[in-house]
Predict the 3D structure of the following.
Amino acid sequence: MTSDGQPVERLREFLRTLKPEARSMLVRELERGLLRGDSDPGNQFVLEELRRTVRAEARPIPRIGDAARLFFTPFEPFLFDGAADHKRIGRLARVSLDPIWHWIGRDLIPAEAKALSEDIDRALLVDDRSKADGLVRALHDRAQQKMRESLAAIGGDERALRRFAIQVGTPRPTEDIATLHQILEFRDVLADLAKRIPPSIRAFEREIVDQTKALIDTVSSAKNLGAAAARKSEVVRFGLILLMNRMAAPWQIIRLATRAAESDEPARIGETPYAVAVNLAIGEVEATIDDLRTEFKAGRPVMSMLKSIHDAARGLRTEIDLSGDSVWSRQVAAVRAEVSNLLKSEIDATPGRVRRLLRPRPANEIAPRSTIDAGDLGEVEARVDFVSACRNYAGELALSEVTLRAYSELTQYLETSAKILLDTLRHAGNADRSFRQSQVDAVIRLCRTVFGNDYAATLAKAADVAAHAAITEKKPAAHA
């Protein structure tokens, strides 16, 4: 089977038209074939196309899963989508799982991994999930033991550390494997906690704070964990991550820290096991800034990220006393400065982008019956929307001055250019009328963002009058 040409396009279109239930059934059968050793390239192509369609629609479907997928199931709440070199407390980059799995099967427990993986596949083929789960647990236990031994063997040996880094193949090998080991060690406790905490938390208020703290205190004090304070703090850290995953506003996790300390003073919070909640909240903001930078480069909307960063920064500064010099006050200040530096250039550049789009052009510069580029308009509109949104967040993100300047330039230019563009449309000829009309339509859209619907509606009526005059009066093309 080829992977190009018209037949393949027809197949892709057919797969896209399938109902979700039919897709799920087809994926399961194709994955069963892979487990049986079916390597037909046509089936593999169909499976990849189905997975691509599902990802594009953001609609997950159940999958049989092989040994690797089942092995990593307990880690799912602690994974993040992003670069493997990004540091996230208690979390692993999803892209790191593949090299780690190869390390487990090649270097850590090669014989056990091969034998147990084959047994797991056979159990899945006959739908014996209970047996498969038991085999996965045996694989977890063996891997956990060898991970502990491997980390201990490194010690302070730089040569051993370099060798270990090459074998694991991730940017943060010791941290990644230590995180894996800890999650496996506490997997039963964390699974129990995951069942008991609320499935979703819209507002982390006092009653829910007390309830979830009591749950985490209970599981972190379980007798089977022993008396070591370090082990309890690790359970608290992973428990907080589970909780954050279910919160509409993850930064509110800091309320557990202030509740545990009965204070908003950093020094007193730092004495409790819940101090890590503040580190987690700041880490999430830093991760969102990384995502913001990526989305900016791709030209995608960033308003929701901007709001998340603003709310988190304000929450940290409101609910914790950061007026003095502390590690957290310096971290929050650094976050605000990073966001400010990232956004300033984008805000400053927006008025210039608008001017280039709406610049009145001489007729001899306009191709007959052309229009402005829809992609350019969409990008400029997103930028204007972004500057308008920044007005709401400017104070907290240290953007007040640059936002005020850019917004003032935008309002003045849009008011002025709207009048000029209406006049050029009124005097347009047959060749340049469509371009003049597209510029007027563009200024109406931008004015709707900046001035509101009423202003845009009035401008649209004026545009209709101008367009009608251009046709009825049959004016020749105007030269600017």
